[in-house]
Design goal:
single chain; alpha/beta; 6-stranded parallel β-sheet; 10 helices; 6 strands; 16% strand
Length: 226
């Protein structure tokens, strides 16, 4: 408990943003676009490889100490699950924006475990039907640099782990942003969050952009960074 209290008192740097990637992704490949939209901030990136290094993505907070100092943390897809499982370590002053957030990846209406086990990179990126062929090819090329073992580690994590709000006693400064056309993290995830939050009587910001899918760059102009 003392360890958690110490972290909550950490002084964050409001001009810094940490971006936490999802499964088989590296948000830094969009650094040029990010700088265009958010030129006043200093940016750091947590690659998928960084996310799964060590024993588990559950060790995220301790493996990525730079994220402790950022005033804003933006997580995407699988990165949101790793963040939420470390929510009790979040500094009180830090703002989290979770895009395509995951509470239980294999909840009813989402991905059956059998589908997760059989997925391939090509099939996964094909679900991003709103993405240009050039952008999809860039993401796939990046994803191919991860080993089969690294990709499997993330899929097993998605199948087995769930968001946990048990240790939270006060409203955290987080925003959940869903895409109405998202075929990777469908809106059924929003329904999963509802009982988890209501059980703890937590009020968090929730937004649904009906016209957006899973493609993170489409969310850049809609992120509530102020």
């Amino acid at each position: 408990m003392h360890f958690t209290v110490e972290r909550r008192k950490l002084r964050v740097e409001n001009h810094k943003i940490t971006w936490v990637s999802g499964w088989a992704s590296d948000i830094s490949i969009w650094k040029g676009r990010i700088l265009k939209f958010f030129p006043k901030y200093s940016h750091s990136f947590i690659d998928y490889c960084d996310l799964i290094s060590g024993n588990s993505p559950d060790d995220f907070w301790d493996k990525n100490p730079k994220s402790l100092k950022a005033g804003i943390v933006v997580g995407w897809s699988m990165g949101t699950l790793a963040l939420l499982r470390n929510l009790y370590k979040k500094p009180k002053e830090q703002k989290w924006i979770l895009v395509c957030p995951i509470a239980d990846f294999c909840a009813p209406g989402c991905w059956p475990c059998a589908a997760v086990k059989s997925t391939t990179l090509t099939a996964f990126f094909a679900l991003m039907c709103d993405v240009s062929e050039k952008d999809r090819a860039e993401c796939l090329e990046n994803a191919l640099r991860y080993s089969t073992k690294q990709l499997e580690t993330g899929l097993v994590y998605l199948m087995r782990k769930k968001a946990d709000f048990a240790d939270i006693s006060e409203p955290p400064d987080i925003k959940l942003i869903f895409g109405g056309q998202d075929r990777v993290v469908p809106l059924a995830q929003k329904r999963v969050f509802t009982p988890l939050l209501s059980k703890k009587k937590l009020q968090v910001g929730v937004a649904v952009h009906k016209d957006l899918g899973h493609w993170l760059p489409d969310y850049f102009p809609k992120l509530p960074l102020i």
